[in-house]
Design goal:
It is a single chain. The strands form three sheets. A four-stranded antiparallel sheet has the order 5-6-4-7, covered by helices on one side. A three-stranded antiparallel sheet has the order 1-3-2. Strands 8-9 form a two-stranded antiparallel sheet. It is of the alpha+beta class and 281 residues long. The N terminus and C terminus are likely disordered. The protein is globular, with a radius of gyration of 20 Å. Among the domains are: 69 residues, Alpha-Beta Plaits (2-Layer Sandwich); 84 residues, no CATH class. Helix 5 packs antiparallel against helix 6 and helix 9 packs antiparallel against helix 10.
C-alpha cells in the first residue's frame, strides 16, 4: 500500500484546482474531494480565504474559485512533463552555465525563486557562484536563459555556454548528479508504478483515488525535478520508460477522480514556500 504524507489544506486545494477544467472549481466540488484526502470542510474554507488574500486564487463567481495569474503561469510551465523527451537533444559535450556572484544573498524571496528555477532546470553547483548543466536541452543556451529568467532567476545573472573544460573540471562536472543512482531510481519507480496499477483494482474507489493522488504527486515531483541528463550520464531509455509508466498512472488517476467527482485529477504537485506557492501539474 502507498502511504500518503500529510500535506496542508492549502496544498491539496491548489493541487485539485491545478488540474480542474480552466483551473477553476466550486466549493461544492472541492469540499467532498478534499474530504477523501483527509481535509475537513472548515479547513478548505480557511485555505481558500488565505489563498484569495495572497492572490494565489481568485474568486470566479459565487462559490467558485480559479488559480491566479501567477499560479496559472507556473502550472503551464510544468504541464509539459509528458513531453520530457522532446525537450532534450543529443549532447555535444558543452555546458550551460549561470554565474550567481553578483546576486543578493539576503533577499529570501529572491533566493527561493532563484533556487526553484535552477532546480527545475537541472543545474548543480560546480563552484561557489557557478552552476552548470549539460547543454542538451532543445533551443540551446539562449532558450534556457529565457526559461531561467521566466522561472525566477534574476535577469542580471549571466547565463552562457562553456566548452573544453580541463579534464579534472570536466570529471567533477559529470559527477554532480550521481547518474547511476538516478538511473536506478527510474527503474525502481517504474516497477512501483506497474505494481500499483496491478493492485489498484482491488482497492475501494475512494482509497484508490487517495493513493493515486499521493503516489502520483511523488512520481510527478521526480519527473518535474529530473535534470534531463543525456547519455552517457544517465540511462535515457530507463527515463523514457518511467515517463511512459507515469502516463499510465496519470490516466488511471484521472479515471478514478472523474468517476467520484467529475474532476479529472491527474498527476500534480504543489510546493509551498511561505506565501510563495508553486503549482506543478
Amino acid at each position: 500500500m502507498v502511504m500518503p504524507h500529510a500535506p496542508t489544506a492549502k496544498r491539496i486545494v491548489l493541487e485539485l484546482m491545478s488540474v480542474a477544467d480552466q483551473h477553476e472549481a466550486s466549493i461544492a466540488t472541492l469540499i467532498p474531494a478534499c474530504a477523501v484526502l483527509g481535509v475537513g470542510d472548515n479547513s478548505v474554507r480557511v485555505a481558500l480565504a488565505r489563498l484569495v488574500a495572497a492572490g494565489t486564487v481568485e474568486l470566479a463567481g459565487r462559490g467558485r474559485y480559479r488559480l491566479g495569474r501567477a499560479a496559472r503561469a507556473m502550472t503551464r510551465q510544468v504541464t509539459s512533463w509528458r513531453e520530457v523527451e522532446k525537450q532534450v537533444r543529443r549532447w555535444d559535450g558543452g555546458w550551460a552555465c549561470a554565474h550567481l556572484g553578483a546576486l543578493s544573498r539576503t533577499d529570501r524571496g529572491a533566493l527561493r525563486r532563484r533556487d526553484r528555477a535552477l532546480r527545475l532546470l537541472g543545474f548543480r553547483a560546480l563552484e561557489r557562484d557557478l552552476v552548470v548543466r549539460p547543454d542538451n536541452l532543445v533551443g540551446g543556451v539562449g532558450a534556457l536563459r529565457e526559461r531561467l529568467y521566466a522561472l525566477g532567476l534574476e535577469p542580471t545573472a549571466p547565463v552562457f555556454r562553456a566548452d573544453e573544460l580541463d579534464p579534472a573540471t570536466e570529471a567533477r562536472a559529470r559527477a554532480l548528479w550521481a547518474g547511476d543512482r538516478l538511473s536506478e531510481t527510474y527503474i525502481e519507480t517504474c516497477a512501483r508504478i506497474d505494481r500499483w496499477l496491478v493492485a489498484v483494482d482491488d482497492l475501494e474507489p475512494r482509497a484508490a483515488a487517495r493513493e493515486a493522488f499521493f503516489f502520483g504527486g511523488d512520481v510527478l515531483r521526480a519527473i518535474v525535478y529530473d535534470p534531463r541528463l543525456p547519455e552517457p550520464l544517465v540511462d535515457v531509455g530507463a527515463r523514457r520508460a518511467l515517463v511512459d509508466a507515469a502516463k499510465r498512472l496519470d490516466a488511471t488517476g484521472r479515471r478514478l477522480w472523474a468517476r467520484l467527482f467529475g474532476m479529472p485529477h491527474g498527476l500534480v504537485i504543489t510546493e509551498e514556500h511561505g506565501h510563495d506557492h508553486v503549482e506543478l501539474s
